[in-house]
Amino acid sequence: MKFQFLWFLAGLCVMLFIGWIVFPYALYERREQPLQFSHKVHTETAGMSCDNCHAFKEDGRFTGIPALSKCMECHTDVIGTSPHERTLVDEYVKQNREIPWLVYARQPQNAYFSHASHVKLAGLNCDRCHGPHGTSDSLRTYARNRISGYSRDIWGNSISGIKTASWDGMKMDDCADCHNQHNVPNTCLKCHK
Amino acid sequence: MESNEKKPRYGMVIDLDRCNGCGNCTLACAVENNVPPAHENANERTGITWMRVQKVDNNRPYPENRSVYFPLTCQQCDHHTPCESVCPQKAVEYDTETGIVAQIPVRCLGCRYCMTACPYHARYFNWWDPEWPKGMETALNPDVSTRMRGVVEKCNFCHGRLQAARAKAAVEGRRAIADAEYIPACAESCPTKAIYFGNLADAGSEVSRLAKEKNSFRLLEQLGTEPKVYFRSEQSWVHEQMNAKLKTAEKEKIHG
Fold this sequence. Notes:
The complex is a heterodimer of chains A (193) and B (256). Chain A has 193 residues and is mainly alpha-helical. Chain A has 10 helices and 2 strands, in the order αβααααααβααα. Chain A has a domain at 27-65 and 101-191. Chain B has a domain at 23-178 and 234-252: Alpha-Beta Plaits, CATH 3.30.70.20. The N and C termini of chain B lie far apart (41 Å).
C-alpha cells in the first residue's frame, strides 16, 4: 500500500515535469538573430532617441524595425570597434542586403494594430508592450513556436499564462484586457483586418 | 467636416441612372480586398466578387425596352442582421461603432448558413485556396488579410481604408476622422460617380440627404433588415424588378 502511493507520487512528479518543463522547452525552437544590436549603445553612447529609427510616417503607418537604408545613414563604413558592426558593414551594407531580423512581436496576418492610436492618442510607452527592449545591450534569443510558427513573445514567457509584467504576452486576450480596463470597444474589426 | 458626437452609421447610395454597368467597382473592390483571380473551375456561383454588377430590364418589347445595371454588395443590414443572427461561430459581428457588418474569416467554420440567410446573395464561399499569378502577390494590400479555402467572405465597406484613415488621424493627434478621409474603393473608382458614400447618422451629409429622397429605396425592404445601402432611380419599374431578381436568384440558387 505504501509503495503504491510512492509510485503514484513519482509518476505524478514525472508527468508534471514533462508537462511543465520538457514540453514547453521542446515546443519552442531557438534561433539567434542574424546580427547583434545594442539599443543601449545607440541611445546612450550615440545619444539617439527612439524615434530616430522607429518613426511614424505621415500616412499613419509605423516604420517598426528600420530598413538597411536607416543603418546606412551612419554605418556606410565601420565607425566603432564592435565585431557585429563589421558584420553589418561587410555582409549587409556592402552587399546591399536587408537584414533578416527575427521579429519578436510579429503578429498573425489577420491582426491589425495601429501604433499611432496607441502611442499618440492613448499615450502608451513602448515598454508597456515591448518591455525593456529599448534599453537592452544585446538581442535575446528568438523562440519560435514549432506548431503555430509564432514568436514566444505572443504567448508570453509564462507558460501558465500568469503575467508577471505588462509586456508578458501579446495575444488577443492581452489586448482585450487592456481595452476592457480602458473602456475601449472590443469589436472584431477594431483589431482584425 | 468633423463627424459629430453621434456614432457614425456608414452607408451608401447608388444612383442607378448613372451606373452604366462597366464593372469598375467589382475590379477596384477585388484589388483593394485581395480577392484572387477566379479559379479555372469557378463559375458564376462559386466565383468571388464582393461587389457584383447585376442587370434587370423592364421586359417590354423594343422600343420601350430599358435595362438598368446595379452593383450588388453586402447591404450592411442595420436591424436583426440575418447573417449575424444565424452564425453558430460568432464569425459575423455588427460593429456598433460604425454600423459595419464584419466578417471574421479565420473564425468561420464554413457551414455557409449565413449565405443561406442572406437575402441579398452578398456572401461568397472560398471553394479554393487563393492563388495569385507569380509576382502578383507582391501587390497585395497589406491592410486586408487574405482568406483561405473553406471560409465565407463579403464586403465590409473597405474597413482597411477606415483603419488607415484612423491611423493617419491618430498621427496628427485627432480622434475623429473627417468624412472625406474614408471612402471605399468602389465609390472612389466609379467613373460615373454613381456611388455616394458617407455617414447616414449625420443629417447634413450627402448620403443622408439622398437616402431620404423620394426616388431612393432599399432592396427587400419588407424584410425589415434596414440595409444601409440605398439605390435610387427615376424609373419606377426598377425597384420592383430588382426585388424580383433577388427572389429569382434565391429560387434558382444562382449565387449559392
